[in-house]
Amino acid sequence: MIVQMKKVSVICLSSEKINALEELRNLGALHVELGEKTSSPDYAVSEQELLKTKKAINILTLQKGNPDPALASLTGTELVKKANACIENEIAMGKKLDSLSKDREKILNWGEFSADLIAELMENNIFVYLCAGNKNTLHLLPSDVSYKIVHQEKGKFYFAVISGHELDTSSIPVTNVPMERSLRATENEIDETNTALQYNKDTLKSLSCEMEKFNRHLVSVQETLEFISNHDGMSTTGEISYLNGYVPVDHVENLRAAAKKHGWGLLLSDPAVDDKTPTLLKVPKIFQMSKPIFDFIGISPSYHEIDISICFLIFFSLFFGILVGDAGYAMLMIIATLIAKFVLKGEKARLTTNLFLFLGSSCLIWGMLIGSFFGIESHTLPRFLRGFEWFKNQENVRYVCFFIAAIHLSIAHLWIATIKRKKITTILGQLGWVSFIWGNFFLASSLVAGREFPSFAIYLYAAGFVLILIGLHWHEIGEVCEFPFALVGSFTDLLSYIRLFAVGLAGLYVGENFNKIAHDGLLGVPSVDIVLGIFIIFIGHGINILLGALAVLVHGIRLNTLEFSGHIGLRWSGFLYKPFKKTNIGEIENVTINTSNDD
After folding, report:
1. Rounded to whole angstroms, how far apart are CA atoms 566 and 139?
2. DSSP H or E run through 232
3. Which regions of the chain are under pLDDT 50?
4. 3-state secondary structure of 279
5. I need a surface site. Which of 124, 150, 210, 506 has the fewest CB within 10 A?
């Protein structure tokens, strides 16, 4: 269910802003609603520190090295500073190496020479020019100069032109040769830079061993940034400042006690429909495994909508079983999850592994019903794995999909009728939709699943149509205009559940055909075909498992968040309740805020 909230304004003296925020953070119940975003110097500094910390963590995650005792004594701030310095040094040294390597390539054909000597000769009116060209270029040189071939490679000559007077460089093929350092000096500098770069890389690898401290520092910086953001976001009128937010009803008394203790003023009210109220979901412990699904897809009902977590989980697991539909895959999934359950610790891991066990069990049951086990033909399987003949009939499976659709969509309308039970017209309208949906079920079953259309289904349509008209809000022109489309849409929504059958059948055929390819052989050489067949089976079923997972993400989630949600009026426009509080990870650094403008 969605926990009831109270809208609250906490009022304090401007001189007590920091103390009030610290107490509110210790209380850990207020979801802060910020006004216009402001960016103080303190916020900018913390924001930069956050970016640097994330950058360091992203780079160090890819590193693996040995711990350095000297680094263990550094604070999180010092580690981030050192890591960013190493990252910047690596980029700078990489550019320097690239430049030195290009210089070396240019100098290499000339060997070891002295740029200082060339400059000294120039002062004595002996001009030396380093040139490059082919054999014909040598014959085109001015007659009053001499030249010395230094190097020859693949028909290209590198030669020095010597003249007693200064030449027009456009008349000779002068090449660009770096004169800042000699070949030996360039190579020495390359070696020194490589050594420094390797030391820098080793330091980064050692820093990666302090990842726990980096993560604690990240949390510290994030909470510091949140603190400063809330401080800057407090509205001030004279000597009074106040902060707006939302608090769950079961925390109101704690907030009142804190206000009494610290001398704050409190304004409490119920959230209005147009307020941006956060959503806090309270799900029974047995169904809390649904949380990883919503965290993954990143959606939440709004405060004034309906929490369908339990219904979502039940039908999502049912869709998962039909879409993947293989008992062999389910067994692998359950075994892998059981191993993960013993290896991984923590609340998040517990919920995730419980979810996968639940989904795997659904897939196992459906795979046993249809006799699907790694795509092996059912007649070759042991009798207890061959499934039930009724479920092997494609028309029956289509019928099951439509039946699930009718149940699913009916729950949506009955749910609305239950919530709005005080309005008799709304209840009748929702019952009308239920009747109409079951009429659609019988129609779809006759058109697609080979069932006979029963005569009483006409009465379901007629009764549903009349009841829907009674429940229609005639004063809302938009709803009236959309009414014909809603009737047609109800049929297409129910028909949409056929995707469960189609995708599940496709997965079954993919598995069977990979098995046939592996069994029939490709090259006609038994020893090679066995190895190749095993490879095909592993790769083929691996691909099929990935396709099944993709199908669940696309179709399993869609049927809940689009078809079902459309019928229950759920727009998923909410955002989660995130209280202003301390975490249990590490120590939060002291916050220093400039309060010169608070008075």
Report:
1. 86
2. helix 211-233
3. 586-592, 595-597, 599
4. strand
5. 124
